Amino acid sequence: MQRQRGNRVLLAGTPLPDYRPRAAEGQYDRRQPTLDRSSIWVQTLGGIPGGPVDGTTPFERPEERVRRRFYRQIEPQARAQGLSLTNKVLVALIIAATALAIAETEPTLIRDYGRAFTSGEFALGWIFAAEYAVRLWTAPERNPTRSAWRSRLGFIFSPAAVADLIAVVSSFMVVGTSGALLLRWVRLARIVRLAKLGRMSRALDHIVEAVMSRRDELILSLVAGLSLIVVAATALYLAEGGVQPEKFGSIPRALWWSVATMTTIGYGDVYPITPLGKVLASVTAILSIGLIAMPTGILAAAFSDGMDRHRRAREDNPPPNGRV
Question: What is the pTM assigned to this prediction?
Answer without folding.
Answer: 0.58
